[in-house]
Predict the 3D structure of the following.
Amino acid sequence: MKGKILGISLSVLGISGLVLAFVYMNAAESFKHLSLLLAGGVCGAIIFFTGIWLLPRKNMYDAQKEVL
């Protein structure tokens, strides 16, 4: 249960980081700000995929056993 909550929260945090980096990318005034936003976007993507990886997976065969 802890992995599921942590995975969901990391995924939401990663998505919000990606969206913020994308929104503020248009307002970057110099290359220094652009590189900082790009680094933030990469960190957001890493956090997002880590959250997805932490979510528990169900095997298709195990789901069929539960129905029977």
